[in-house]
Amino acid sequence: MSIAAYYPIFDKLTPDEQQLLQNSAVRRTVPAGMLLHNGSEECMGLLLICSGQLRAYITSDEGREITLYRLFDRDICLLSASCVMSDIRFALMITAEKETDLWVIPPYIYKALMERSAVAANYSNALMSSRFTDVMWLLEQIMWKSMDKRLAAFLLEESTLEGTQSLKITHEQIANHMGTAREVVTRMLKYFQTENMVTLTRGTIHITDPDKLETLAE
After folding, report:
1. Of 109, 143, 177, which one is at a domain's C-terminal end?
2. By CB atoms within 10 Å of each CB, which of 51, 103, 197, 218 scores lowest?
3. Residue 90, CB half-sphere, CA atoms under 13 Å: how many?
């Protein structure tokens, strides 16, 4: 399908603006594990996800990671084009967690579109506000929710995303998502196992009592 199917306000643009996007947008397929955006060093452009899964995260000076949000089918990543937004300096990393098919609108094209279209500018501001809300929610979770509750919620979310209760994920990967140390995750998972909520094997976490995890997460 064309970019018109993935940019929600496409039909609200003028014919010239529509043509601008259609002529400049590039369709790409990226493999799982590929780094798409490397902090503030580059400005990739607006990403419109057709299918797949991306992870947006930040890293500390010590190299610790924390996932801010994930992007799925028909999601839009604006912060990969943060250079077109005034006074936005956000060292965001974006990687493909799964093979992802997407449209890329070059940053200079999207900046030109926002300058000439109030509809595009307003939509971009709404997108930015939505992502800011996601980050604030995450901050609240970190500040006010205990690690056992956060880990229980993460495992349930991961199970829903993957469509299975047997999760092929390492303790290190979980730690990177949650912004903590691998040892903390390992210790908490062992506690979950003693409580018969999960079973741990090499490279796999099997959820044995999702109801108990859900009660804990709440």
Report:
1. 143
2. 218
3. 23
Query: Phi and psi of 183, rounded to 5°?
Result: -60, -35
Q: How confident is the model at residue 6 (pLDDT cuts 50, 70, 90)?
A: very high
Q: Could you tell me the CATH number of the domain that includes residue 180?
A: 1.10.10.10
Q: Do 16 and 110 reside in the same domain of the chain?
A: yes
pLDDT in tens, 96-106: 999 999 999 99
Neighbours of 215 (CB within 10 A): 11
Q: And the tokens for 41?
A: 């060093």
This prediction's pTM = 0.82
66 and 157 fall within a common domain: no
Please write the tens of the pLDDT for every residue from 7-43.
999 999 999 999 999 999 999 999 999 998 886 656 7
The pairs formed by 86-89 with CB atoms below 8 angstroms and a separation of 24 or more are 88/128, 89/40
What domain count does the chain have?
2
User: Cα separation of 97 and 173, whole Å?
Assistant: 11
Task: Examine the domain organization and report whether 137 and 158 are in the same domain.
Answer: no
Per the structure, the complete domain to which residue 45 belongs is given by 3-143
